[in-house]
Amino acid sequence: MNIKIIKLIRIYANSIFNFSIENKKINYWYYMLHITSKVICNIYTNKKLLNYINLNNLHKIIKNYFIKNKINYYYINFISILIKNNRLKLLPEIFKKFKKLRYKYYKINKINFVTVNEKYNDKIDIIKKKIKKKYFNKIIFKNKFKKNIISGIIIYNNKKIVDYSILHKINCIEKCLKF
Most Cβ neighbours (<10 Å): which of 63, 100, 115, 116? Predict the structure, then answer.
C-alpha cells in the first residue's frame, strides 16, 4: 500500500471515530464497520459476485439485506461516499484502524500468544492469570499456532514482542557467528 492510501485510511478512520465519540456510538460504528467490511471482503474475493453486484447500488444492498433495522443515515452516507470515490476496497483497512482506535479509547490490550501446539496451554493460562493480576484494564487474549518456531512461546502485546522460541535463539546464534 502506498503512503497516500495509508494516510487516506487514517483520515477516514479518525473522522469516523471522532464522529462516533461525539454521538456516543462507538460500539455501533464498530459493529457496522465489522459487518460491512466482512461483506466487502467476501465480494472482492469472490469474482463471481463482482459480476452480479453493481457497486454503485451496494449501499442499498447493505441497507436492505445485511443490516436492516440497525443502520442509520450517517452510515449509509459514509458508504455512499466511499463508493462514489471508488474507495470501497479500503473499508476493511479503515475498520482495522478504527478497531485500534477503539481499543486505545477503551484501554483494551490485545495479547497474542504464539506456540507450536496446544501443549503450552497450561503455561499460557498461568501467564494470562499473572497478566490479569498485574493489569486491571481489559485484555483480549488470542492463541495462535505456528510450526516453524520449533518450540517455545512468543508473546505479542501491541508493539512489544517477547520471543522465547527456539527459532529466535537459533537466529541469534546464526547472527553472532556471521560477524
Answer: 115
Work out the average pLDDT over 104-121: 86
User: What pTM does this model have?
Assistant: 0.72
Q: Could you give the 3-state DSSP secondary structure of residue 72?
A: coil
Adjacency order of strands within the sheet including 138-145: 138-145, 108-115, 152-157, 160-165
**How far apart, in Å, are the Cα atoms of 92 and each of 9, 71, 88, 97?**
10, 18, 9, 9
The three-state secondary structure class of 87 is coil
Burial string for 105-142 (b: 16+ CB within 10 Å, else e) reads eeeeeebebbbbeeebeeebeebeeeeeeeeeeeeeee
Second CATH level (architecture) for the domain 3-104: Orthogonal Bundle (1.10)
Domain chopping of the chain, boundaries: 3-104, 108-178
Indicate if the pLDDT at residue 23 is higher than 90. yes
User: Do residues 94 and 39 lie in contact, with contact meaning Cβ atoms separated by under 8 Å?
Assistant: no
Topology given in CATH for the domain delimited by 108-178:
Glutaredoxin (3.40.30)
Which amino acid belongs to residue 87?
A: R
